[in-house]
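Lecture 7, part B: from sequences to assemblies.

Below are the input chains for today's worked example.
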Amino acid sequence: MAVKSMKSARGRGEAVVPLTVFSPDDIRGDFPILQTTVHGKRLAYLDNAATSQKPQAVIAAMTRFYYSQNANIHRGVYELSMEATAAYEAARECVRQFINAADFREVVFVRGATEAINLVATSWGQANVRAGDEIILSTLEHHSNIVPWQILADRVGARLRVIPINEAGELCMEEYEKLLSPRTRLVAITHVSNALGTITPVQRMVRMAHTAGALALVDGAQSVPHLPIDVRDIDCDFFVFSGHKICGPTGIGVLYCRQAILQAMPPYQGGGDMIETVTFAKTTYAPAPQKFEAGTPNISGALGLAAALDYVSGIGMDRIAGYEHQLLLYAQEKLSQVKGLKIVGTAAEKAAVISFVLSYAHPHDVGTILDGQGVAIRTGHHCCQPVMDRYGIPATARVSLAFYNTRADVDQLVQGLQTVKEVLG
Amino acid sequence: MSDLRELYQEVILDHAKHPRNFHTMPDSVRAADGHNPLCGDRLKVFVQVEDGVIRDISFTGSGCAISTASASMMTESLKGRSLVEAQAIFESFHDLLTTGDHADRDEELLGKLAVFGGVREFPVRVKCATLAWHTLQAALKGSAEPVKTE
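Predicted structure of the full complex, as structure tokens:
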């Protein structure tokens, strides 16, 4: 995983961050919440796939905006407004660099990955998907990469096709190949499964989609926080992610879309800021990305996101990926020693997510008891009911790691599972 | 830990591991499905009513310890009760879980169900404890729509 990602970093001609040993102890102090206690216990926050914690730098950037920079953007002729506009557009450039898009105009700020997918499904989808057309998804998809396509398909009479997964939680590539046809308009696929941690072969899948004449959307909600991302390397047409999963604030996210496609797409929402001229007879639209950012945007959110991307870039996404992979191996090793515990999702290529079930306890009870031990994990279907159905289980307990997690967090989890055994075993 | 023991009392764990009245009933009997999408709990409650009295009641399905134990203990406490008594027990049970207010609570009617008092300290688990009860209400009303608690 880490090796492959280093190659992509080199590919874009950047200096490779020297792989000095990363120690989370050096940066844990940057996260105020990690210093707090829960139920009188040290907090072991292991629900990073749901949302990440925020470093001081992000909190400060947002506070600074409201303290000393706040003004609406784009049309003000006064100093503050011009400063706010510059900061907002600098945040866009920051995102462009982070995902290595060719042009800042390919970056649209949205509320999050969910809104980005809805934007594509509504705008591009209604203009380009017709009755009888097909959209290919996979069993691994989060509900946010299923439901918008279902709504579109119902509206236009298109059909959803689903790539199955094997027992390990990997996509069945031969099935994918069979599903591709001249009817395929779009392949919309997750980069990293939030429920199982599976890393999907997006480059290859995008290439296959293009060969079949289809476009490709990659849901990067779970990959952006954990792997170096190069959208030109992946070669996808759409790439979406949420800021809050990569140390940024909630309510801000990104749609990356290839320039030629984005400029041709009809508006998503109408309003101020997305127009050129308005008369009751006719409105002409601003060019992208403004065309897709109707209304006053989440300015402080964009600034917070930029601060977050700067922060993780300062550590280095390669080092983050490498460290998290080591921690994943440690956690898997420790958990595999817990009696009655079964890990669900054992793909060869995995991000730092471990879903598991216990033979003697329902995930929901596991979550409650672990909470009492200061361990925060997620339990349930993780907005992936098709994945749960695939394994014939109603729910799992899910541990998802971030670079600020330590072996001590994992040990606290394993210790907490001892308590689960004592109470329910 | 003390709160946890309060939540997972021996009686609750016993019913969770060995649910009583855990079986289906013939199609002729009233039944309803309950689903808690939050945690994936699914259960089905069967109830046989004659002359305003619950003659028999059972359930099937899978869920967490709290929802399974609650369903199991519900069937035990309601079998043989009149519908009026059953409604009073449900209301007392609901109060027990949601408010500290004893005013409307009939401790005698509640009986063993009082062990669920610890759930009040875990607000996200209240839905687990009430799922079977809401499902029963749906069965009694003859509702075709599955009950959802979230």
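Note for the exam: The interface with chain A takes residues 1, 3-5, 7-8, 13, 16, 37-42, 62-66, 122, 125, 128 of chain B (CB under 8 Å). Keep this in mind when comparing with the next example.
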